[in-house]
Each structure stands twice: as C-alpha cells, then as structure tokens.
Known about the structure:
- The structure is a single chain.
- By secondary structure, the chain is an alpha/beta fold.
- It is rod-shaped, with a radius of gyration of 26 Å.
- It is built from 11 helices and 8 strands.
- Strands 2-1-3-6-7-8 form a 6-stranded parallel beta sheet, sandwiched between helices. The protein has a two-stranded antiparallel sheet with strand order 4-5.
Amino acid sequence: MTETLSSSIRILVVDDHIMFREGITRMLEREPDFEVTGQAASAADALSQIAPSGANLVLLDVDLGADRAIDFVSHSRRNGYAGAVLVVTAGVSDREAVQLIQSGVAGIIHKNQSSETLCAAIRQVIGGEPWLEKNYLAGVFRSMDRGRDSRRPNLTARDRAVMRYLLQGLTNREMAGKLEVSEGAVKASLRVVCQKLGVRTRTQLVKVTLEQYKDQL
Length: 217
C-alpha cells in the first residue's frame, strides 16, 4: 500500500466551477496511479493547499474568476512549488499561451478532450515531457514570430540604403556618392546600423543583413 501511494501522481484540482471540479475528481480517482489530494476554487485557495496537499501536479483552469492561471503559476513558483502544472482551458489566446509556457507550465489541454487524453497528458507531463495541442502550438509559434518582428530595430531609410549598398559591395566613397553625403557621414551611418543590429564588423553586418533583413531592403 505504501509503495502505491509513494509512486502515485498526486493531483490538486483547481477550477472555480464546482461541478467541473467534482466531475474531474471522480474521473481521475478511477485511475490506479492517480490520487486527488485537494480541490481549490481560486488561486489563493490553491496556494494555501499546495504544500499540505503534497501535490506533484496541479490541474489548473485558466480562468479562475478574478484571477488567471498565470497569477497562480507565478506565485506558486516564487513560493517554491517545483511540481508540474497542466493548464486545462476552454480557450486561451496565443499571447496568454506564450505567457503560460514562459512561466513554466508543463502543458495546455482543451476541456473538450476525452478523459483518456487528459490522463495521457497528465502522465506525459509527470514524465517530464511537455503537452501542447496542435492548435495551441500553431498559435504559440505565430505569437513568437510576431514577438521577434516587434523586437527588430527601427531602421530608417538611410539605414536601409546603407545596408543595401553594402550588399552590393560598394565602398564607403561609392556609397557617399550615391547618397550625396560625405564619407564621414557614411561611416557614421554604418556605426549606427552596427549598433542597432548588435554587430561590430562590416563582415558581421553583411552576414546579419543577408540572414535577417534582406526582406526589408
């Protein structure tokens, strides 16, 4: 008996809808390797229970009334909880999915999934593997791509012109002629572009421009 309990997956169910909490608890307790050690209706309630419950997995609704799942996750990590958190949701935005993943949740699963799929997800995250459904995965990548775009430096028309001429192999003097400025002004523009792109040499600038910014030229 002791061996069974020590190897069981101890689950804290957190959801503000009592019917869902009780229904999911009954379903989980039918599994021989699952043990529901607590139920909570809010982030504050869950935080107070997490240590005494001995849970090594929190099954967490994303919408907890006045709180969001991210509130619980951030507070529980600061309080030393090192177990897995599996978010169960009826829907979450791409942005919030990214925030949850960055905060360290082990997975996100939709509430319309079958009980078999939920059980498989729980076992997978306890085993150290993340669980993220394809529809959320696509959204996460889209959001991360947008994030990368938003972190790109703001290139002026002069910056882009200098980068374009650089790719064409023009010397500073030739660039100066094209831009109708002095060579000193071209050198200053190159320094500014290098700073914006985080490079130090002309060779590095060419490489980064070709790899990341050619579409802007």
